[in-house]
Amino acid sequence: MQAAPVPQATTGAPVLGLQNIRKEFGGVVAIEDFSLDVHAGEVVALVGDNGAGKSTLIKIICGVYPPTAGRILIDGSETRFSDPADSQARGIQVVFQDLALAERQPVYMNLFLGREAVTGPFRRLDRRRMIRESEELVRGMDVRIPSAKSTIRDLSGGQRQGVAIARATHWASKLVLMDEPTAALGVAETQKVEKIIGGLRERNLAVLIISHSLDQVFRLSDRICVLRRGVQIGIRRTHETTNNEIVSMITGLT
Amino acid sequence: MAAKLAAFKAVDPSRYIVYVGFILILIGFSIVLRDDGFLTTRNLLNIVQQTAPITVMAVGMVFVLTAGEIDLSIGPIVAVSALISAIVLRENFWFLGAFAGLLAGAAIGAMNGLLVAYMRLPSFLVTLATMGFLAGVARWLTDLKSVPITNDTFNGIFGAGTLFGVPSLVMWTIGIVFLGHFFYRDSRYGAHVHAIGDSPLSARAVGIKVDRVRFSVMVLSGACAGLAGLLYSGRLHGARYTLGETDLLTVIAAVIVGGTRLNGGVGTVVGALIGSLLMGLLNNGLILMGLSVSEQLMVRGVILLAAIALTLRETRT
């Protein structure tokens, strides 16, 4: 990975701005006072132990949960998403850990799910176009699948995750959120997915990724943000910190 | 062994087994019943006409099953719709009667849909309950009496009439299958029906209105059952609470044998048509063979089991 200087605030407002986000579930505080900016072309890793509130944060950003308090800014303007469809319309896509794919549908239908291409006066599904575009997309991301017509169920875990990421990045114009995108993958597949994530930076998308693998976090990210039991412990530039520092921030032990 | 299995899987027999079965049974009956007038245009057309209501309901059921739901209440919807249209037809012209029947079916479907989609109750239990409730309604509506339909226009359109020389029941079959196939395979709506049956979570995640689609398939199924009620009452020149009573099993068998999965996400409308013709073929052939009713039931049961076993064996993983 290139160790180029972090492209901080190059174009003014960050793609994603979180200011003093707080989330309570029935009186239980899941996240308190979380603030973070993510810029275009930047990969920020969100780390922390189980139950630290990482997934909750992702769900707040994409509109699954509303925050109890705090502001979410997209390109500098305050935003409130009432559901995931809202955030998608603003160019935000999520890759979930449990792969939100329809398993018995072909790859191309998954890539276009909810945004199917249609043609003609009867608005027929334009399968040919969806298949062609899917093949280009998948080839462009170096995801090797037998064909865009393959059923998801017949693909390996890595291929599936490749499809999920291809979908997210195809429709994301600003920000991709990833919740442990390689948790279910083997070594070679993980490598491939990491390469894809690196490619997102080159496309000038902002990426916020949750990962349990610190090696991976150090390979991929520009900055690392640590959460512990809902509390934001700190943010470090990846090339200025060490594995040990991050581990002690996560665990609270020195 | 593994390679062999993989090759077997790639062909996916459940998609084609209905066509093979259909042709085999057609050939079998043609040979066995060659002297009994089985293989005549008239008899074959007759089969298509007899199965028209089944086919119409099967098309609705393909959408429901693909969406991951089920509608067990179609049988009594047939009876209630037919009775309501027959009652309305006593004093009104054909369109009003037909409209009332269809509306009744759709309204019952909407009731199912509300409970399933918006109250989040399982469709199996909801429609099991409405099935019982409606069976009561069908008996109560006319106090078990049958209602004759003397409106010739109605009986022509939904029964024995013809259009361009083609029997109207054949026309209805073709029309509904054509429309159903189009919306199922070639529309965004169809794609969403597939998606919500396959994985409601991922459908919701990409912004598909899962509840609305769920609601709509239940309405569609109710409307199809309503239309089936009209087709029965048009052919029989009257309605009775027993109409459609035994159709649920036939419809589900036709749809499943046709290649639609019971647990959602995968199906075919054309397969359901062939499946229901297969059921009609069996019915017709067994009668022509001179089997008694009890023998017919047993043979049909065994054939059905065999067909379902062949169709579903591979899809269980």
TrEMBL record, chain A:
Q: Pfam family of this protein, just one?
A: ABC_tran
Q: Which positions carry the signal peptide feature in this UniProt record?
A: none
SUPFAM superfamilies (alphabetical): P-loop containing nucleoside triphosphate hydrolases (SSF52540)
Q: Which PROSITE patterns match?
A: ABC_TRANSPORTER_2
For the keyword ATP-binding, the answer is yes
Q: What is this protein called?
A: Monosaccharide ABC transporter ATP-binding protein, CUT2 family
MF term (GO), any: ATP hydrolysis activity
| Domain of life per record | Bacteria
Q: Which UniProt keywords apply?
A: ATP-binding, Nucleotide-binding
Q: Which organism is it from?
A: Bauldia litoralis
- Does ATP-binding show up as a keyword for this record? yes
Where in this chain does the record put each ABC transporter domain? 16-254
Automatic annotation (TrEMBL), chain B:
Transmembrane domains' residue ranges: 16-33, 54-87, 93-117, 124-142, 162-184, 213-232, 269-291
Q: Main site of residence?
A: membrane
* Any one GO cellular component localisation term in the record: plasma membrane
How does the protein's chain sit in the membrane according to the entry? Multi-pass membrane protein
Which controlled-vocabulary keywords does the entry list?
Cell membrane, Membrane, Transmembrane, Transmembrane helix
One of the record's GO molecular function terms: transmembrane transporter activity
Taxonomic superkingdom: Bacteria
Where along the sequence do coiled-coil regions lie? none
| Name of this protein | Monosaccharide ABC transporter membrane protein, CUT2 family (TC 3.A.1.2.-)
Q: Which organism is it from?
A: Bauldia litoralis
